[in-house]
Write a structure and sequence with these properties.
The complex is a heterodimer of chains A (about 80) and B (about 375). With about 80 residues, chain A is α+β, with helices and mostly antiparallel strands. In chain A, about 30% of the residues lie in helices and about 35% in strands. Chain B has helices spanning about 10-20, 25-30, 50-55, 65-70, 120-125, 130-140, 160-175, 195-210, 255, 295-315, 355-375; strands at about 1-5, 35-40, 40-45, 65, 75-80, 80-85, 90-95, 100, 105, 110, 145-150, 180-185, 210-215, 220-225, 230, 235-240, 240-245, 250, 280-285, 325-335, 335-345. Classes of the chains: A alpha+beta (about 80), B alpha/beta (about 375).
Amino acid sequence: MSEMRIIDARDTFCPGPLMELISYMKRASVGDEFELLSTDKGSINDIPEWIKKVGHEMLSSEQVEGVWHIKVRKAK
Amino acid sequence: MRILVVGGGTAGTIVANNLARRLTGETRAGKVRITLLSASDRHMYQPGLLYVAFGHMTPDQLYRDEASLLEPNIDFHVDPVTKFNLDKNQVLTAGGKTHDYDILVIATGSRMVPEETPGLNEGAEFFYTEASAVKMFKRLREFQGGKVVVAVGVPHKCPIAPVEVMFMLHDYFKARGIRDKVQLSYHYPIGRIHTIENVAIWAKPEFERIGVATETLFNIKEVDVKNKLLKSEEDTEVPYDLLIVIPAHRGMEVLETENLGEGGWIPTDRFSLAMKGRDNVYVVGDTTNLPVSKTGSAAHFQAETLAENIASIVKIGAPVRDYDGKVYCFIEAGHDRATYAMFNYQNPPDLKPPSKPMHWFKLSYNQMYWTSVRGLL
């Protein structure tokens, strides 16, 4: 298993956290894991929705001091 | 002090000109040397490509000679960099030259990579290069009706372009009197129709008004050219008669081969614009890996900040301000109307209703750009 990589998408309105995540996931290998940092409250809904629809794996999500930490794994 | 700027696009040209103006005395006295290396002797106004694709501009209107845009105290060479020796503070060029520096600015931009998606080059039209924009215009001219599908790759330059192209397609086919024979559909990677929430909220009823069908959470996987089908990573597919794609982009190939950043995007501090791990290398424009729009406007504001800071380092030994994430994007809204989105790291865009004066301002800016890139505006 590869090391968990951080994507710092805090305080970003364009391209935004999900677009950042998609960009990294496209270049990743199956099994790669990412921890996305987001201050956009929409991330807690739209990222799991996309992960489920495309068929990747949601590992966890938690909010720490106003920042969402969303962990995912590339599954295909 | 030797300051070397690599890249003669919007960011590199503004950095060089701004520095040259701030450091006139130092360059005249021989204390500072500003060198700009570019891959081309011409400078393109890239936002004009969208107008070329709809026949509103011709390619020759997009270019100026790079040398004509530069301050006279800039040492300019058309000689692309092929190797970065950051540990030795030097770069090597295609022409076989070695350039040593004390401060390096990397502003090499981005490029579309449709070849990375199966079938895209064969099946889709683009407007991100001169040749592709002219080809798209010719396809539009000969198109007599059917399904026009617009889809968006990730990451891409000019995040407003996907929305603008829908309004322009509507206006274009309406002007030709065949709008009723054309079905427009728009397919976007995330869960709303634009990544900026306020743009998505504004554009949704506008799209409904002009009859644009939308599909979200659609990421381009491949094009079945034979059967004219666009397929998504999410296992959906859409038939098309004319496919227009905003392709995925990467940074310049030399940055990948030199291992300076995954995807050709260099890890960059979001405030100082320094390359991570290097205190005398800075990155501006599309080349950064920042979660900021890849647009000329972001490049412009980053370049102004960086030039002011480098000049201050020369004069007082320290930078004076941070880049605040500022971006300002015009949004063409059809019917000769436009609006804009302005935001930074802390403040989301507050979209104003589209107006004709804002459209005229955008058309004026198409010419004012040349003042802007000289570092005067």
